[in-house]
Design a protein that fits this description.
nine-stranded antiparallel β-sheet, about 20% strand, single chain, Glucose Permease (Domain IIA), two-stranded parallel sheet, alpha+beta, Peptidoglycan DD-metalloendopeptidase family protein
Length: about 270
Amino acid sequence: MPYDYWLGWLPFVAAVALGLLPGKAARQQIATAPRAAVEVEAPVTGRWSALNSPADKVPSHGTHGLAQTYAIDVTAEGAEPGEGAEPGEGAEPGKGARPGFAWLWPIARRPRAFPSFGAPLLAVGEATVVHAEDGQRDHFSRNSLLGLLYFFLVEGTVRGLAPARRVVGNSVVLDIGDETYAMYAHVKRGSLAVRVGDRVHPGQVIAHCGNSGNSTEPHVHFQLMDGPDLDTAKGVPFRWRGIGVPANRETFTAPPLEATGPVEAAQEQRR
């Protein structure tokens, strides 16, 4: 979820949700000594802002569980205020500014109101797809006062009791070698452009940004980890080539990265 200033609630919710289910104890593991940061390409292109960044706090999401120690959330900012389309007019990145937090109204917005929704997710290196799922729905946003209360007191607890896939939503996991795996969470339903076993190349579109799982608004949750299983893996530090690790609320621009290899035809066939 992208609202880092509400994360003070997260340990309480996690303690309630995870403490009620002993079988999920693996989600509460303590991180071991950190590995050196692994440099990879950025998983997005265009103008984005970082939230819940490991540049400011480790563990970045308040927990080592689900290998989130060095995870980062990024949201597409779209057009500057007064430029391009009005908020909510388009799903494509850059077609409208990102809607702000609503204290009273609207309680929820459709995913397409956010410029992140539908943005392409790119392979961060030469890799093999070891997990790919896109059957869970994209829900309405939770970026209002009432929406957040529902998220923290009801939805977050329920998802915390469920398998890890209900927390991360639709997801893709890439094996990038050297016991390092890249995980993309909250993927858009029906947007997969790859299958398990596919070999992918840097810059290749593998899926699109959505709002599935434990998410307050469409955004990209990205992390590196030392195994493909979220319940047992531990987080691995990352750096994006040419960008580094953006700090909380830092806006950055990821330049386009041309994919290598004959991938476009295969992507079209899978859509």
